[in-house]
């Protein structure tokens, strides 16, 4: 990932109190950075805007 997160990382409202979740943030190139909430020192995964939109569309569909 060469882009940097510019927005705050956000957790899903469905996350439990144990903190076992992923967090997402918008990147400076309009993509998305994804990190493990328990291991914030690890480098986040980066996704281009188009890749992230495809993922979200699939996640929201009845296919999941």
Entry keywords:
19% helix; alpha+beta; four-stranded antiparallel β-sheet; DUF397; 64 residues
First-to-last CA distance:
27 Å
* Biggest beta-sheet profile: 4 strands, antiparallel
Strand content: 15-25%
| H/E topology pattern | EEEEH
In terms of structural class, how would the helical and strand content be classed? alpha+beta
Low-confidence stretches: none
As a whole number of angstroms, the C-alpha radius of gyration is 12 Å
Roughly how much helix do the residues carry, as a percent range? 10-25%
Number of strands: 4
Mean pLDDT: 85
- Strand order, main sheet: write it out: 1-2-3-4
- What is the helix tally? 1
Shape: flat
Please explain how this structure is put together:
19% of the residues lie in helices and 23% in strands. It is of the alpha+beta class. The protein has one domain. The protein has a 4-stranded antiparallel beta sheet with strand order 1-2-3-4. A hairpin with a 5-residue loop joins strand 2 and strand 3 (32-36). The longest helix has 12 residues, at 49-60.
Question: How would you summarize the topology of this molecule?
Answer:
Blueprint: E1 10-11, E2 22-26, E3 32-36, E4 45-47, H1 49-60
Antiparallel strand pairs: 1-2, 2-3, 3-4
Summarize the structure in short.
The chain has 64 residues and is an alpha+beta fold. Helix content is 19%, strand content 23%. It has one domain (10-60).
């Amino acid at each position: 990932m060469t882009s940097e997160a510019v927005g705050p990382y956000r957790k899903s409202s469905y996350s439990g109190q144990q903190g076992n979740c992923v967090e997402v943030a918008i990147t400076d190139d309009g993509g998305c950075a994804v990190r493990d909430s328990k291991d914030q020192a690890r480098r986040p995964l980066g996704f281009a805007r188009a890749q992230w939109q495809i993922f979200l569309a699939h996640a929201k569909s009845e296919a999941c």
